[in-house]
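Structure tokens please, single chain.
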Amino acid sequence: MATKKRSTDKLKTVKPSGKRDENFFELVFEVARQIPKGRVTSYGAIAECLGAKSSARMVGWAMNGAGRVRPKVPAHRVVNRLGILSGKHHFSPPGMMEKLLKKEGIKVKNDCVVDFQKLFWDPVKELGF
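Here you go.
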């Protein structure tokens, strides 16, 4: 006889990869922690590294909550595919993302990383995935 689900049973959120949100976010944080100071990567590059190439937006959601995670996650080093500081509005104050990048020697002009291609850190290549 099948058991009935109780209203108190929680549904688990599952991603297209079959992993729960928390696990995917933790993997995103672990990759982001590997980004060297003075380098940047993109949401899509992290997603591709994790085998979820079409999940760049989910990486963005993870980065949005990275400020509350320990050990720290250098979310300021993750930008969009064009090098634009698209996540700057999730920092408090919004200029903090640029300030943190500049502190690491990364030049930013008009909310865009100068020499983005040169500073780009590809986790697929660097981590051997």
